[in-house]
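Appendix C reproduces, verbatim, an entry submitted by the partner laboratory led by Prof. M.T., so that reviewers can inspect both the input and the predicted structure.
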Amino acid sequence: MFLPLLLFLQSSALPTLDEVKLRDCLKLVRADAKSGIVSANEWAREQPGGKNRYFADICLASGYARDGKYSQSADRFAEAARAAEKAGDLGAAKLWAQAGGAALSAGQTDDALGYIETALRSGKLLPGERIDTLIDRARAYVASDRLDSAMADLAEIRRTAPNLGQGWLLSATLARRMGDLAAAQGFIKTAGALYVSDPAVALEAGNIAAAAGAYDIAREQWQQTIKIAPGSPQSATAKALLEQLAAIDAKQAKVTAAAKAEAAAREPQSR
């Protein structure tokens, strides 16, 4: 959730003092979020009405995000975006997008959609920034159970950024959730070609296979997930799914054995 410093350099001239302070503050946030928050607050108090007061808000928002305080981060990014708009800063659109991403992480879906819509309507996001913002909006739509709207955003991402594996992976996950397994299988195949040896892709491939009843393939994909990234969150999920599958197999084996025993007991005894 860190903004590139170049976003705020308004010309090819040497950076201003405030731009240098922002760079140093963000550097501190990356090294130690809590210290960065303290520094940003001190900076804001030094110039409560300064022209570039929102620079301190940018650093503060970034520090809150780094520290996992997403609701506070969203508030500060939104405040910075409003001030940037008044200052004619072209980076305001990106700040609205940042506010949306932070709000989404905080579980504040309505706020997230509002901020994201403001960023997209501005028409001032760079192509890559627009793609990232569409991904966030698709996630917000999913959280709001607006699945068709989410898929429409993902379709635009697949069209405009066909080499972005994340778009195909998210599309596969959503298609599976919507019950369109044929589409999900096509999406995950493309994601796999773009993201080779990616644990998230392998995990989702297993999920899709399981949804289709192809449990042998699901088992292979989940085992591959663990092999690719043993200590990852995806690996932990894959292990849990494999345990569930093993429990189902064991239960089925007991049922089958009991049925065979019952059938054998009913057979006429030979003399």
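The mean pLDDT is 91. Additional entries are available on request from the coordinating office.
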